[in-house]
Amino acid sequence: MKKDLLSLLDLEREDFEHLFKRAMKLKERHQKGIFDSLLAGKTLGLIFDKKSTRTRIAFETAMIQMGGHPIYMSTQDTQISRNEPAKDTARVLSRYIDCLAMRTFDHALVEEFAASSTIPVINALTDSFHPCQILSDIMTVIEHKGGYKGIKIAWVGDGNNVANSWVNAASVLGIDLILACPDGHAIRQDIVDAAGADAMDNIIFTNDPKDAVKGADVVYTDVWASMGEEDELEGRLAAFEGFQVNEDLLAHAKDDVLVLHCLPAHRGEEISEAVLEAENSAFWDQAENKRHMHKAILESLIIK
After folding, report:
1. Structural class in CATH, domain 8-129+290-302
2. Looking at the predicted structure, is the pLDDT value of residue 265 above 90?
């Protein structure tokens, strides 16, 4: 039976643990110059409505390095742009490829593709969730902190798709997570309800960034206006005053705090230049780990 990855609520704790271990093993093998061909003869389709650097290249290189072949499809280059129903496209692609990764706006579209496909469908980002990103981020936390248990993670910024996926991960894994979002930009209540986060002691919501980062092992931020919201940025700047991750804010965290950002970063807005360019920064490890985590995800979904 095929399995999809549309949100992190699709995974059990055992699934998370398997992906972390496998991704780190594949990274280790890659660093030793060992290349696997477990996906030889397999094809990954990529349908992207939104622009991408890291996610697209990570999926493409992951598939190639595992011996498979990626096929990138801009929506504008397909019959979807001429109003072919999603269910029809999904049924046809299921006859051509072995897995489909989608990066789009409306999460319902990914759900519709998954419902009509006989192949695994991966959410490579929607306005609601970014599950693959958080899997690689937790992998980065494990590498730098030795694990995620007993680690306090603070989110500072917009209650966006990345934050939503952190809530989902914390609800399954019991991660200590505190999210500081400005009034009017908090996590949507339906996201909180679906994860059961309101009833969990390990997930805390606040609008005070200093309180959130107090004693934090990891501080995470993202842009204040996501793709499709760029015209709102000017109006958001006042709401996000005090939410920049800078040296002053990090003074409230642990001395060895790990700062994460899924990139691209708007330097001088949600994160300062000094923090982004710090010698011990892990942003580039995050970006690299997407490739190895994507390998583990593709292997787990395609090989039955």
Report:
1. alpha beta
2. yes
